[in-house]
Amino acid sequence: MRIFLIFLLPGIVQCANILFLEGVPSPSHHVWMRTLIYALAERGHNITSISVDIEENAPKNVHYLHLDRVYEVLYDGSGDMNYVELGRSNVFMKILVYVAFTMRALQGSAISTGYQKLLNYPDDFKFDLIINDFTAGPILLPFATKFQNVPIIGASAHYSVSFALPLVGGVATPSYVPYIFFASDLTSFKDRLTNFVALYVDYFIRDYYIAPKIHSTLGKDFPNLKDVTELDKLTKIVLLNKDSSIGVPEQSLPNVVFVGGMQIRRINDLPKNILSIMNEAKKGVVIFSLGTNVMSDMLNNDCFTEILEAFRALPDYTFLFKTDVEKFPVDLPKNVVSIKWLPQNDVLAHPKVKLFITHCGLLSVQEALWHGVPMIGIPIISEQFDNIRMLVRDGLGEHQDLITIERHAFQRLIERVLKNPKYGENAKARSSAVRDQKESPLERAVWWTEYVLRHPNMTHMRSDSVDKGFIQRHSWDIVVFIYTILLILLYIIYKIAFKILRKFAGKEVKKHKKQ
């Protein structure tokens, strides 16, 4: 495993004050952003992060402002976000849920102590850079109007280039790139039509619903706040969690920097209790984890029972079961170890790990591929369905539906991936390809961050397309104009042909009458 030598990066700049805007209520997004925060802190920069998730033992030059009311608002009992149920809905329902998710994050942020603390900073407080997680829209970006003339970097733990178009411009390609909530290979006209409509519905909702809501909610705190979509366009570069290990190849502008797998850092020693479990495993270890957002109460007892009974039927393997469950519906099998937390990246690096049963969140998939571990995907929501589709396509794993899970079929699926060498071989080959980079993703992210610090007024990478509306950017007006001209020409040709035929028919009628 390559050790990321952050201090050896060239072109170091003077220590800067950097503001991170982490408004996305998702622990996995914070894990990804935290990696960059800590790397920049190691470089001597002073970091202030306004965040839904915070770290208790952060470095001394990392200061968190807690958005402490966001999860309370998000899970207040009035239509809670049950991700298992939401994952079964159609793409347009998922868009509506995303909107509700964003609005609740906005509402919770506006009443949080961290928000008020940052709001009370002096207007002349000097930040040298703002790094904004734009996944949930510009819900915290109005702070850019308070600390003016500060360069902005956009960052997202998602991998979709299309997601970044409102920030840097470029052209959407819904003909072959699936929208983030739509898992399809887009081979049929129906799927391409659905994908096209979903993508543009998303964009228009962001511009004409979410943006005005942000303005109406936060406008009282930022008197100079105008159109938040214009704040997005101030973005200098975008750091995107995209790499060659997963996802569809996409065209992108030069100021979209791929730093996929940035969160994968040096391997730490495993805790003694976990190391003991790994060493004592007979044939190997299988990790089971549904990520950070799926709570135990989102799964029913039947689901837990079928999963555990499948594990019980494979006694030669040890199963590390990451869950917050206190009491299981059946006795825990002897070969299953229930654990509330595990250092996932470090565990995946252990040679005893033979299989990763995962929700197929992007960070988890990247870490498994980095360490060459095959997967069984149990997708829950968002891009997870698309991730497992591509893993199955490439022979890196198999798909298990959570709702229809049945112990015997699940057991056979686990055995298939464990015993068929193609899965492990394909995973090792992909690991070799993913690791073969001239620099680590984290080194790349740090270098580009400091590049913007060195050139805060940079405009040479900015595309003019960001200032154009969707109609102009995608040449819809040109297409409509051309088709209109063609229709007019066809109509003229039709009228001329009709008159000629009518005249000819008239002559023929007269000729027959004379005869």
Task: Please summarize what this structure is.
The chain is an alpha/beta fold and 515 residues long. The chain has helices at residues 27-42, 70-74, 83-86, 91-110, 113-119, 143-146, 165-168, 189-218, 228-232, 272-280, 301-312, 344-348, 362-370, 384-393, 407-419, 421-435, 441-454, 470-473, 476-514; strands at residues 17-22, 46-51, 62-66, 129-133, 152-156, 235-240, 256-258, 285-289, 318-322, 336-339, 353-358, 375-377, 397-399. The protein has a seven-stranded parallel sheet with strand order 3-2-1-4-5-6-7.
Q: What attributes characterize this protein structure?
A:
single chain, 515 residues, alpha/beta, seven-stranded parallel β-sheet, globular, disordered N terminus
Architecture overview:
With 515 residues, the protein is an alpha/beta fold. Helix content is 44%, strand content 12%. It is built from 19 helices and 13 strands. It has helices spanning 27-42, 70-74, 83-86, 91-110, 113-119, 143-146, 165-168, 189-218, 228-232, 272-280, 301-312, 344-348, 362-370, 384-393, 407-419, 421-435, 441-454, 470-473, 476-514; strands spanning 17-22, 46-51, 62-66, 129-133, 152-156, 235-240, 256-258, 285-289, 318-322, 336-339, 353-358, 375-377, 397-399. The strands form two sheets. Strands 3-2-1-4-5-6-7 form a seven-stranded parallel sheet. The chain has a six-stranded parallel sheet with strand order 10-9-8-11-12-13, sandwiched between helices. α14 links the parallel β12 and β13 (397-399). The termini are far apart. The relative contact order is 0.12.
